[in-house]
């Protein structure tokens, strides 16, 4: 029996199932379409998410990143080391605890994140332009609720 078997099986037509399916498709479409603008792009999604987090919350410890992203500390440490080697992040001593280090965006990391963000914004803007005015209005109206839902899901960790 898989982990999914222990959960209530989602059914097509269920609001939660429909939302999950739409989000999954959006993420997949964005990931693959951004490669059209950046054929050189090799940032794994986990690294993009870390860069986004570090831009919002500069100077996190590896343990903080692991907790916030619900990942094992050793996995995060490996990803951070890869990002260090790629010049995307830097480490600094924690001024409150000299034994600890903080992870910060480097200028290269910030530039790559902003280029990645702009590419995604262009892709989304183009797709939104193909929708009807009513569909765009519905998406605009849904964004605050989706942000609140994401926050609630983060709070449950």
From TrEMBL:
An annotated Gene Ontology molecular function: DNA binding
- Entry keyword set: DNA-binding, Transcription, Transcription regulation
Q: Which SUPFAM superfamilies match?
A: Winged helix' DNA-binding domain
Pfam families, sorted: MarR
Q: Is Transcription there in the keyword field?
A: yes
| HTH marR-type domain segment(s) | 16-155
**Which PANTHER family did the record assign?**
CONSERVED PROTEIN (PTHR39515), HTH-TYPE TRANSCRIPTIONAL REGULATOR RV0880 (PTHR39515:SF2)
**The name this protein goes by in its record:** MarR family transcriptional regulator
Q: Which organism is it from?
A: Gordonia phthalatica
């Amino acid at each position: 029996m898989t982990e999914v078997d222990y959960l209530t099986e989602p059914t097509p037509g269920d609001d939660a199932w429909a939302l999950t399916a739409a989000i999954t498709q959006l993420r997949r479409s964005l990931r693959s379409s951004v490669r059209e603008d950046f054929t050189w792009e090799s940032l794994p999604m986990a690294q993009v998410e870390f860069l986004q987090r570090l831009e919002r919350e500069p100077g996190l410890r590896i343990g903080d990143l692991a907790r916030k992203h619900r990942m094992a500390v050793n996995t995060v440490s490996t990803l951070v080391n890869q990002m260090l080697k790629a010049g995307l992040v830097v480490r600094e001593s924690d001024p409150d605890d000299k034994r600890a280090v903080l992870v910060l965006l480097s200028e290269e990391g910030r530039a790559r994140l902003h280029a990645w963000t702009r590419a995604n914004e262009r892709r989304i803007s183009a797709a939104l332009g193909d929708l009807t005015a009513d569909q765009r209005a519905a998406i605009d109206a849904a964004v605050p609720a989706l942000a609140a839902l994401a926050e609630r899901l983060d709070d449950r960790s």
